[in-house]
Amino acid sequence: MFELLGVSPQAFTAQMLIGLINGSFYALLSLGLAVIFGLLNVINFTHGALYMLGAMLTWIGLTQLGHWIGMPEFQVPYLVALFLAPLIVGAFSIVIEKTMLKRLYHLDHLYGLLLTFGIALVLEGLFRHWFGVLGNSYPVPDMLRGGLRVNGLFLPYYRLWVVGLALLVCFATWYFIERTKLGSLLRAGTENPRLLQALGVNVPLIITLTYGAGCALAAFAGVLAAPIYQVTAVMGSNLIIVVFAVVVIGGMGSIAGSILTGLGLGVVEGLTKVFYPEASSVSIFVIMIIVLLLKPAGLFGKVR
Q1: Per-residue pLDDT band at 220 (split at 50, 70, 90)
Q2: Residue 189: which of 38, 302, 304, 34 has the closest Cα?
Q3: Which of 45, 73, 289, 298 could cross-link to 117 by cystine, CB 3.0-4.6 Å?
Q4: Contact 33/258 with Cβ under 8 angstroms?
């Protein structure tokens, strides 16, 4: 079969793996966007910048911090950075929500989009000024180096770790929102916040923590991406348009839709590189156009 298609089994499997890895990042990033839009009705354009911020903080902790504090051998352990960077970015996002974004909740979605887009430009400009536009990287953690050889194909442990951990986080987030009592409060707070507040629930706190958690998911994806991709100030802006397309295809606000669509489109993009490389950069947008023509609310979305 592979001979008829004009590709080798190794090339096909390799592109499938690359597509699954890219799909894992699409799923994580679109999941954060879906959480924020679905529960808060905010189109969060800072998501790409926060993805970059998570990667940058990890790169700084693993390669630069020791020199800054006069201890060249010191570095933040990878597993610590995996939790610390999202916490820092989540706390930073909470400050944004409390000081700026909450003032716009009663206005049209466009105002929130413009604000978050402006914040993204400021963050990108600051890091471009401080660290330039050249890519930086750090090595894969020692415990995740090496890989498996399967039918002549080398599967790096770190990439398998990324796919597995991304799937675990996506499933845990979906389960928390859709199957737990606190998740039901989150969803109820978006539909009838006044009634929920009358029952003694602190709705503003729930909104703030939800926004922080959604942004932390973007930073978490950045930490995972840093050993694979070049860490640059513009890495988020290069990805955010694709992620928004994924969210639109899956359905704005649909948690399960974002996860499944992100993974599926990553694989589609990878296979497109095998059979028609020239169309790989536009395949997702072609699918988005078709889906919007046939089902404007997205594959898993509902008309609001």
Answers
A1: very high
A2: 38
A3: 45
A4: yes
Using an 8 Å Cβ cutoff, are 231 and 134 in contact?
Answer: no
List the chain domain ranges.
Answer: 2-294
Of all residues in the chain, what percent are helix, strand and coil, respectively (each to 5)? 75, 5, 25
Q: What is the pLDDT of residue 224?
A: 93
Is it true that domain 2-294 has CATH number 1.25.40? no
Q: Is the pLDDT of residue 195 over 80?
A: no
Q: For the chain, what's the residue count?
A: 304
Q: Which H/E stretch holds residue 110?
A: helix 109-131
User: Are 30 and 41 spatial neighbours (Cβ–Cβ below 8 Å)?
Assistant: no
Cα distances (angstroms) measured from residue 200 to each of 193, 207, 273? 11, 15, 54
Question: What is this structure's pTM?
Answer: 0.91
What CA–CA distance (Å, rounded) separates 147 from 270?
21
Residue given tokens 């987030």 in the structure block: 173
Greatest distance between any 2 Cα atoms in the chain: 66
Beta bridge partners of 136: 231
